[in-house]
Amino acid sequence: MRAHPGRSAFARLRHVPLRHVPLRLAAVAVLATGAVTLAACGSGFNSGDKGSSGGSGNGPISVLIGSSGDAETNAVKSAVADWSKSSGVKANVTVANDISQQLSQGFTSGKPADVFYLGNDTFPAYAKAGDLDPFAAKLSNVGDFYDTIKQSFTYNGKLYAAPKDFSTLALIINQDSWAKAGLTDADIPTNWDQLAAVAKKLTTGDQVGLSISPEFARVGVFMAQAGGWLVSPDGKTATADSQQNVDALTYVKKLLADGSLKFSSAVGAGWGGEAFGKGKAAMTIEGNWIVGALQHDFPDVKYKVAELPAGPAGKGTMQFNGGWGIAADSKNKDNAVKLVQYLTQTDQQMGFAKAFGVMPSVKSAADQWKQAYPTQAPFLAGADYAKSIPNIVGIADVVKDFNSQLQGLANNDPKQILGTVQQNLQAAVGK
Amino acid sequence: MALVTVRRHRDRGPGIRGREAAAGWLFLTPAIVILGLFLVLPVLMAAWVSVSDWTGRGSPFAAGVHFVGADNYGDLLATPGLAQRDFGTAIRNNAYYVLLVVPIQTVVALFLAVMVNQRLLKARGFFRTAYYFPSVTSSVAITVVFLFLFSSTGAVNDVMSYLGVHGPSWFADPRGVVHLLLGGLGVHQPPAALAGGSLLGLSWWQWISGPSVAMCVFILMGVFTTSGTFMLLFLSALQNIGAEIDEAATLDGTSGWQRFRFVTLPMIRPTMFTVLTLGLIGTWQIFDQIYTGTQGGPAKTTLTPAYLSYSASFQNQEWGHGAAIAFVLFAIIVILTIFQRLLLRGRA
């Protein structure tokens, strides 16, 4: 909020006295300005053809990705380059700093990237606005994608993205702390009581038993394990204030009160993985990405990945899906679809899995992946019962508000928190 | 007589001076074009977006975009729901920010200016530069430094622990300071009178929360970065006051404080107005620190209207809401500036 010296200069310019100038001249000048500005603006906005113009252009394909780091960037770049070589179509990969902002800018300008990353929690707003092409059903390997992931990218009955990979949440255990507390493999928790017990046992003076990020994307696993969720299975009714969800939050609140669970923000970490890597927590709940993060930032930490314990209603976890989207305003749709087809092949997906630790979105790669990464098998096991963030327009805001309330869970009433979430969700579901 | 005739003659015809207006407009054209292109036109477009259902695809003037009247404004101001509550939260957070930053930075700036204006002070140049330095540093850089300083294991908490105080995890602490103070007095739950009632979706208890601990860091940072700029404004005003006025007052037997209060302060009133106005406008528009630092967290206590406008538009595709927020913010700033102007003028 510094004062802008430029602003006062503007103010001075605006006070140019116009009185002494003949009116006619002033009118001409204003009109001329208007004409120039409108003309300049016309080139920025593509107001004309909005329909699905065949899009069989041969121009270069632009690919926009939000990358987790060099490994991912290089893997995508080299895969796209391979495709360019075999197809003869040029393609450029751009790494976005802030992909939702850059996507939005592309859509407003009428010249969006042709192919881009999509998350299953953000795509409904784009789909509703007509930004996306529902191309994915046309892919030849559409039957190979996991149904749950396809479901999470479906809006109004149409599949808007080709699933590219997914991650699930699992329990990450620090093996040294585990051994130090006298625990063995047989003690890996399989239900809520056991989780509470080991978390308590692992809590020492400078290490908390369990630390997770204070957000729905982690706490939600307990809601799934309790048999609750934000929406009904068909996604049409808000069910945030169900008794199951209240039970889940009450359980988390109890762990917080015991001191055996602390949110990552409370131990000075940005996320659960950081708290875990720094040794501030003996366990955390994180997804596949933690493997790469630990390798990169905390290579000395010995850890074990386990399936999350079951709750009153059985096993439950959350999954996060990535997909490739194609812009409705793309001029090169045919080639864009071919590129996506290439990138979602089983071999390519195994390559990406190797490069940056995601799980392939195709069933045909499951066995291969399990063999290659036996220690991470619990992540893939979670796919059988995992739930995705509901794909309804406005869900991002509802979740953001839920997250902001979860930070105060220790001092607030779970019922009250979920009541607010329910209100917000009902408004979003009704849209 | 001859002169008069000549002048009359000139008045009738185009003459040399007659072309000046045209030339003037010619010279003005670049400025008008630039202002029109980058200021007037975007403002008009945003005004249209704020009353339309534009979804962010293609031009807002395309055929598929409809006029929806005041719906977007209604969602923010009248319809209970998430949009309204977010807006209320943002207004509350920013109001506390303005309420604390503007007076503090003005007083600090004036104090610093008076200090470095002392003729007795040695190394005045050094101090002037030092105080001005934060103002010319990128706010993103300063925010990042503050993020490190105020992390829960950062330098600030280290120093505090030497003094036996256990510091909070600043940027992660959503508790409001007024709530904390009341908690210290044993009031943890809102009294019945404050629990109910609501303005923009927040209860009175939520309105009086005070800035959160995280917001307090931003307040400190705001004072730190901007005081230097305003110190410079005050300094130039102080240097315009002739030494003889001070001497005259001294001869009248005034004390140092009296000279400051009854001579200096009235003489720098125009500068005071400038500083307060710029401060008010700048603080209501806080964005870059939030964007770099907390993105509105923890628990939305550093959400501000400017950041909310950005996130509504670019992240949630609610372009109408985003534009409407910007215009409500504009109205708030204009109204407060007029109000402040009346207040300062009234006392003169």
Automatic annotation (TrEMBL), chain B:
It is found in: Cell membrane. The keyword Calcium does not apply. Keywords: Cell membrane, Membrane, Transmembrane, Transmembrane helix, Transport. It is a multi-pass membrane protein. InterPro entries: ABC_transporter_permease, MetI-like, MetI-like_sf. Coiled coil: none annotated. The keyword Phosphoprotein does not apply. Its main location: membrane. The chain crosses the membrane at residues 21-49, 95-117, 129-150, 212-235, 267-287, 319-339. Residues 91-340 form the ABC transmembrane type-1 domain. Belongs to the binding-protein-dependent transport system permease family. This is Sugar ABC transporter permease. It comes from Planosporangium thailandense.
